[in-house]
Amino acid sequence: MFTVDEAERRTLTRAGAVAERTPGFVFSSPVGGTTALYRLTKGGVPYLTTDSEEVQSRQAKGWANEGIKGYVLP
Asked: Quick one: DSSP state of residue 27?
């Protein structure tokens, strides 16, 4: 599972999840050349995407939009 939330990472590892390497970094505010990273959840399952059309499509299928969680390089 990917997360941009340090508290969530700690909670998951205390519950038995194994922390792996850091696959990349997320900016906390927009920086030139970055795009928004959205997080959606459904039934406790998180989903990250940079595609705003996908956000709308998943919301129509019952996914909860948690909003922009950071900004990433495309």
From this structure: B
Does the residue 33 lie in any domain?
yes
Q: Round to whole Å and give the CA distance between 42 and 68.
A: 16
CB within 8 Å of 72: residues ≥ 6 apart: 24, 26, 27, 34, 35, 37, 50
Phi, psi (degrees; rounded to nearest 5) at 18: -100, 125
Contact yes or no for 39/22 (Cβ under 8 A): no
Range of the domain at 44: 23-72
Domain count for the chain, please give it.
Answer: 1
In a domain, 30, yes or no: yes
Distance CA 20, CA 2 (A): 10
pTM of this structure: 0.82
Q: For 16-54, how does the pLDDT look when each residue is reduced to its tens digit (9 = 90+)?
A: 999 888 888 899 999 999 999 999 999 989 999 999 999
